[in-house]
Amino acid sequence: MRGPSIAHIVLVIAMLATVPLLTASSVVLNFLIVALLIALVGQGWNVLGGYGGQYSFGHAAFFGTGAYVTAILQMRYGINAWPAFALGIAGGALVGAAIGALTFRSGLKGSYFALVTLAFAEVLRILASVAPITGAGVGILITLDLRPQAFQFQSRAPFYWIVLALLAASLVIVRLIEQSRFGAWLVAVRENEDAAKAVGVDTVRVKLVAMTISAAITAAGGGFYVQYFLFIDSAIAYGPWISIEALLAPIVGGVGTVFGPLLGALVVKTLGELTKLIAGDAPGLDLVIYGGVLVLIVAFAPHGIAGLLADLRGRFARLRSSVPERAHG
Amino acid sequence: MVESLLRVERVFKRFGGLLAVDDVSLIVEAGRITALIGPNGAGKTTLFSIISGFLPPSEGRVFHRGADITGMPPHLLARRGIVRTFQIVQPFAGLTVHQNIAIGAHLSRRSRAEALVAAAEVASTVGLSDVLDRPAASLTVAGRKRLEVARALAAEPELLLLDEVLAGLNPGEVASMVPVIRTLADDGITIVMIEHVMQAVMSLAEHVFVLAEGRIIAEGPPQVAVGDPRVVEAYLGRGAAARLSAAGAAHV
Questions:
Q1: Is the Cβ of A179 closer than 8 Å to some Cβ of chain B?
Q2: Is residue A288 in a domain?
Q3: A85 lies in a domain?
Q4: Which domain does A208 fall in, by range?
């Protein structure tokens, strides 16, 4: 499968890594940290939705689990933030495997799968809003402890580099999946499940593994969110907003491509900020904008920005190759 | 007793009130081409789906080399060497021809590079080398039928179930496809083919089962099976065989 090489990924990450050296503006860094966080969460969605064709509307279930496990282990059990974060990823993966086992074994596909994932996320949101361990309606505040060993930092730059490193890892993971047999099988499942079965692909297992990886990546975003904002409640953790961000970024950027979620997250977040600049911070307005962007993308660029760019490159190449012919003619 | 490659034993399949497969038993011997013919709606594809694990039978059993494989899922049957193609072609539409075939080749190969090499070899066997990098969706009907065969072939089947791979092809395309199927059989692959193109059935098949209204009404070498009055009647209507032979006698 064609795609960027690992060297491409290293180059892009290296360029992004220089940003905190160029500016100390907390507005710029905060914007980029959130955008990269969404890119990370979207990359998780992309594994299952982009490559596997299983459109989840409930990635909040994994984001929230990553966030809550990270927060609860620290505040309720006194575990250090770093192992708590790692266990948050594991917890998200576990929830992904469990929801995957229930949905894929019962053969749910397409919009049924989307609705059931949404329902799982909502059930978790409601449970988290009443259970004492999640702080019920109050949520959980992480005690301020601005030391690196507590996964907290004085400035934004270290946070920026950490989320960038997580994103880099997700880009490499997705690229490795693209080049593997598992990745070929996953795409086969997306393109035609019956045909895949006929040539020996265990489609349920492939989807289950994809959902577990997908959930783990998205859960990493949740754990990072907690450490960055030092607060989580049920509406943030399991709310529909993050499920929407998770699917919007890859769909806008280009589903089933390595850089799609990153491109999409940057574009969507930039649009969101511009909207705020123009219209003020009207609640829900960003969702209206997202809805409009989604309609435009689906209607005019079904392969997202990555698809548009590939298209333009193709046209440019054809244009260049036709120039000498004209010169001769 | 030596176990046959595939044995279908008293299989029934009901869809609500419709009896699609009605007490079918058949044996497929290794190393030859067996054809399954019959009018539309006879239950041929349903029987294929049962053998390949896509549908469970309502009753009856299917054996592969003596082992009961009834109800085994398709991917496990594919790993046992039983691979089907689809009458309504099912390409991985968004992938290239090369990538499509490679999915089949991955069954026995973990490495992406090896699968792609094997896929290119299979493509040349079935005559798809020129279109390797084209999207599967851009192929003609004939190309898509070849792709069905190629993808199944790349999975290195022992038993290949071909569901109307010649349907919808023009005579020239049929003529170029027949030797391909012959080559596969010569390479030791046992083939069961559902086919309406009788010219191909007559020239390829060593054994024919005729299915009508879910039942096997005749079997034997192709010349014998198609001459059977019950077969003529299944295709042309009750009494047709008698009318035909009367007409034939009148001409003599």
A1: yes
A2: no
A3: yes
A4: 6-258
Give the number of A-B residue pairs with CB atoms closer than 8 Å. Answer: 82
Model confidence over B108-158: pLDDT tens digits?
999 999 999 999 999 999 999 999 999 999 999 999 999 999 999 999 999
B50 in contact with A at a CB cutoff of 8 Å?
no
Cβ of B90 within 8 Å of Cβ of A195? The answer is yes
For chain A, the domain total comes to 1
Question: Which residues in chain B have Cβ-Cβ distances shorter than 8 Å to A201?
Answer: 75, 103
Does A1 touch chain B if contact means CB atoms closer than 8 Å? yes
Q: Tell whether B44 lies on the interface with A, counting CB pairs under 8 A.
A: no
Contact between chains at B83 and A201 (C-beta distance less than 8 A): no
Distance CA(A54)–CA(A99), nearest Å, equals: 13
Q: Is residue A81 part of a domain?
A: yes
Distance CA B161, CA B142 (A): 18
Contacts of A179 in chain B (CB under 8 A): 112
Q: What is the pLDDT of residues B213-251, one digit of tens each?
A: 999 999 999 998 888 888 888 888 877 777 877 887 777
Residue B158 near chain A (CB below 8 Å): no
Domain containing residue A171: CATH number: 1.10.3470
CA distance B6 to B190: 10
Cite the DSSP H helix spans in A18-141: 19-22, 26-45, 60-77, 81-105, 110-128
- What is d(CA A212, CA B234) in angstroms, rounded to the nearest whole number? 53
Cβ B103–A180 below 8 Å, yes or no? no
Task: Note the pLDDT tens digit of each residue in A254-271.
Answer: 999 999 999 999 999 998
List the one residue out of A128, A328, A130 whose CA is nearest residue A236. A128
- Alpha-helical (H) ranges within A192-303 are 193-198, 203-229, 234-238, 240-253, 260-279, 285-300
On average, the pLDDT of chain A sits at 92
Contact residues on chain A for B78, CB-CB shorter than 8 A: 197-200
Interface contact B92-A187, CB threshold 8 A = yes
**Whether pTM exceeds 0.95:** no
A169 belongs to a structural domain: yes
**For B174-194, how does the pLDDT look when each residue is reduced to its tens digit (9 = 90+)?**
999 999 999 999 999 999 999
